[in-house]
Design a protein that fits this description.
84% helix; 258 residues; disordered N terminus
């Protein structure tokens, strides 16, 4: 929010003289934390995307391995699953982020119109929002006037809408990140299945997938400041179940000659 993050504004409005410098420093400090939060969200999304690639591709190639030991069939199924999954993830992320961006742009356009058509009402609204956050009436009014004089649209976007106009998510970036994360994750079970000799394929794949799932579970828990043990068990357990079910189905189909 702008009253928290913009240097020298709301903090300075309630102080005098030299007190404005600490307020600006605090605002910059909080802005840095906001940037860190954004980066952590991207990193968490990348870990989860890679995790999707690992589990879905592992389930696919292990299922096919239950039905046949032919390397060409395993490679074909694995590559098809990798491409289908990565493109699906990218398309879904592009649509989702585009919808969010369109909504944010529409909200910003409406706020811009309201500021142009009824500036006094918007100033009163901003004053009330700052008052609701704990400022006294006089300080809130002075802060609202300073915010409005500096950049009214950015202030209302951050305080009223919770949108940072300078940090709207790019749908192409989001789609590319999802595509890359899924692909990297999917390559592990695919290579683990097709590179080793036939007698070791299944064992190598299962062990490498479970070890990687333990790592991604631990890492995602650390990013979310959650206990890692539970996250690791969920991740490993889910992957093991997925591979077990698909292998059983593949074996059944292979035994019946389907």
């Amino acid at each position: 929010m702008s009253d928290e993050r913009r240097p020298g504004d709301a903090g300075g409005a309630g102080d005098t003289g030299g007190a404005r410098r600490p307020a600006a420093a605090q605002a910059g400090h909080e802005a840095g934390h906001g940037g860190l939060g954004t980066r952590l969200n991207w990193l968490r999304a990348a870990v989860l995307g890679a995790n999707d690639g690992i589990v879905s591709t592992a389930g696919l190639v292990v299922g096919v391995a239950g039905a046949t030991s032919e390397r060409s069939a395993l490679l074909t199924a694995g590559l098809a699953g990798l491409l289908a999954g990565s493109l699906s993830m990218a398309a879904g992320e592009y649509v989702s982020v585009s919808t969010q961006r369109d909504s944010e742009l529409a909200a910003l356009a409406q706020e811009r119109r309201e500021l142009a058509e009824q500036p006094e009402a918007e100033l009163d609204e901003l004053t009330q929002m700052l008052t609701d956050r704990g400022l006294s009436g006089a300080v809130a009014r002075e802060a609202a006037e300073q915010f409005t004089a500096r950049d009214a649209l950015r202030t209302h976007a951050r305080v009223e809408l919770g949108i940072d106009p300078d940090a709207l998510t790019n749908p192409w970036h989001a789609a590319g990140a999802s595509f890359l994360a899924f692909t990297v994750g999917a390559l592990l079970p695919l290579l683990a299945m097709v590179l080793p000799p036939a007698s070791a394929r299944l064992t190598v794949t299962v062990l490498s997938v479970l070890a990687t799932l333990a790592l991604t579970g631990w890492w995602s828990a650390r990013l979310g400041a959650a206990p890692p043990r539970r996250a690791v068990l969920r991740n490993v357990g889910g992957g093991a179940v997925a591979m077990g079910v698909t292998y059983a189905v593949g074996s059944l189909l292979g035994a019946t000659g389907v």
